[in-house]
Design goal:
5-stranded parallel β-sheet; alpha/beta; 12 helices; single chain
Length: about 325
């Protein structure tokens, strides 16, 4: 029996399910847990949702009520028959609940598509070939024969399109498109979902984009681009931290750029880095020595050091890799 079948069997036998995704949540993890929770409830289960960080406002519509925060993890986890962690298998991405998850690993299940993994669960279905966690959750729901209505389908399509750049990135494949077609058959309007997700920006976010673009630096004969967003940029524009999602992709609008970096300075002084690559280099391999990870074409890193010094270290690492191609 493979991991998909094992996880489906565990969920079918469970009455109470706790679902969570990683800290600094994105559309993939949020859409996936929202969809699986709604489908579980329709199948007669009790499902609770938990997110270790603030849910970005653009994804709030996916939830009938806000997910619980990390302070409720022990309570909800101990009451649950199974705990399902979706879109991560890395302790570093679970922040304040990581050890508590590991302490309960006998009833933890993982559904993840990232190559960076830790042993945090009894059963770990990790498939780096999946374009998004939402693709895997769609397959799980189909295996379970759980109900799917338009709200479940909408959450899953938000998940799938989040990690594929609205089906534009290189990870968009036939498997992903088959699931997208299945979701449209359940009544999702992709035009309405696109507007809700990607045409809902506040003026403050656009002001932040302007300041970010002013920091743009292009190197390696135009193949490497880096940008920074500092704390004062948030203060000046009034933008929120969750409004930086996907901004790293702005640099990839430059035709010659293969690899892009965005460094964001948080209120706590932590630096959060997004790395993207079109073709040439494996950005997960770039991130790994700095304690980060992710996918070949999309990865992340966190650090507590000067933002300009970290920019130099990362651009040097990328430049060395690009020099080999």
């Amino acid at each position: 029996m493979n991991e998909l079948q094992t996880i489906a069997g565990c969920l079918s036998q469970a009455d109470k399910i706790l679902l969570l995704t990683h800290a600094r949540p994105d559309g993939d993890g949020l859409g996936a847990i929202a969809a699986l929770a709604r489908s579980a409830v329709a199948a007669g289960k009790r499902a609770e949702l938990l997110v270790p960080d603030r849910v970005p406002e653009r994804y709030a519509f996916l939830f009938s009520q806000p997910p619980a925060g990390p302070e409720r993890f022990a309570e909800l986890a101990d009451a649950a028959d199974v705990i399902v962690v979706i879109d991560t298998c890395a302790r570093a991405q679970l922040d304040g609940v990581a050890q508590a998850v590991v302490d309960r690993r006998d009833k933890v299940l993982v559904v993840d598509h990232h190559a960076t993994t830790d042993a945090i669960a009894a059963v770990q279905w990790v498939d780096a070939s999946a374009a998004a966690a939402g693709v895997m959750v769609a397959e799980l729901i189909q295996t379970l024969h759980w109900p799917v209505d338009v709200t479940v389908a909408e959450a899953l399509l938000a998940s799938v399109t989040s990690d594929t750049g609205w089906l534009q990135f290189a990870n968009t494949d036939a498997r992903c498109l088959r699931q997208a077609a299945w979701l449209l058959e359940h009544g999702v309007r992709p035009d309405k979902l696109y507007r809700r997700l990607f045409q809902c920006d506040r003026p403050e976010r656009l002001a932040l984009v302007a300041r970010m673009l002013a920091s743009l630096r292009v190197e390696c004969e135009g193949r490497l681009a880096s940008m920074v967003i500092r704390r004062e940029d948030f203060e000046h524009t009034g933008a929120r931290g969750d409004e930086t999602e996907n901004l790293v992709n702005e640099a990839l609008r430059i035709g010659a750029v293969d690899t892009a970096l965005l460094l964001v300075e948080t209120d706590s002084g932590e630096i959060r880095v997004s790395l993207r690559s079109r073709d040439a280099i494996d950005v997960a391999a770039i991130a790994k020595p700095f304690g980060g990870g992710g996918h070949t074409r999309a990865a992340g890193v966190r650090a507590t050091m000067n933002i300009d010094d970290f920019r130099e270290k990362l651009t040097q690492a990328c430049a060395e890799k690009l020099g080999r191609f």
